């Protein structure tokens, strides 16, 4: 009996890689990646293909969302806004938040999944131990699933799945190690594409996770937040 088909959103970062490792245990996978004019677009795309090659995923789709760069409002897409040094105690939404990004990405994923007749879309969103993005909350994905139900064909049954949503970065690292996820192929830095900066929000959270897990991060850093 053939495996069910699932669409997996793969940015090239650690969270999406671990999500793919989890999905690979039970589903055939189709990988989706989005270029939206982010600073490390080329490096993230390279990581995406490396992870797809590792899992022998032939069905991979790359979409362009260049209008997010035109809209701006984020340090990831507007080079006039500096990428801030991480503050892990900050309670405000950081400048790296890309306005309503996940909604655009998930909308394309649903369209593709409906054509592929895939039943699930997986995204490596993390709510508790993340930068506080509003479109990475469990309530957001619940609302999006409601939207899919009323906005697709009557016989379409697609659910957004977020297996990491309640996990800490430490737990994600350990899960990745358990599943032999290729974390050395991933890229999380918001700023650099050769050696990770080590001090942006994404790098700091990743380094914190590896540090608490007692595991050495396999990618190179210019400096360490800790």
Please identify the top-level CATH class.
Alpha Beta
Mean pLDDT: 96
Return the domain count: 1
CATH topology: Rossmann fold
CATH H-level homologous superfamily name: HUPs
Class by SSE composition: alpha/beta
What is the helical fraction, as a range of percent? 25-40%
Low-confidence stretches: none
Q: What spatial form do the alpha-carbon principal axes imply? A: globular
Side by side, the strands of the main sheet go 3-2-1-4-5
Helix-strand topology string: EHEHEHHEHEHH
Strand content: 5-15%
Alpha-carbon distance between the two ends: 49 Å
Strand segment count: 5
* Total helical elements: 7
User: In this structure, how is the largest beta sheet organized?
Assistant: 5 strands, parallel
Second rung of CATH, namely the architecture: 3-Layer(aba) Sandwich
Radius of gyration over alpha carbons? 17 Å
Offer a concise description of the structure.
This protein has 226 residues and is an alpha/beta fold. It has one domain (4-213): HUPs (Rossmann fold, 3-Layer(aba) Sandwich).
Characteristics:
226 residues, alpha/beta, Rossmann fold, 5-stranded parallel β-sheet, 7 helices, 5 strands
Description:
The chain has helices at 14-23, 41-54, 67-71, 101-116, 138-151, 169-178, 201-213, and strands at residues 4-9, 27-35, 60-64, 120-122, 159-161. It has 7 helices and 5 strands; from the N terminus they run E-H-E-H-E-H-H-E-H-E-H-H. Helix 1 (14-23) crosses helix 6 and helix 6 (169-178) packs across helix 7. The model has no long low-confidence stretch (mean pLDDT 96). The longest helix has 16 residues, at 101-116. Helix content is 36%, strand content 12%. The chain is globular. Helix 5 links the parallel strand 4 (120-122) and strand 5 (159-161). It is an alpha/beta fold and 226 residues long. Strands 3-2-1-4-5 form a 5-stranded parallel beta sheet, sandwiched between helices. The protein has a single domain, classed as 3-Layer(aba) Sandwich (Rossmann fold), CATH 3.40.50.
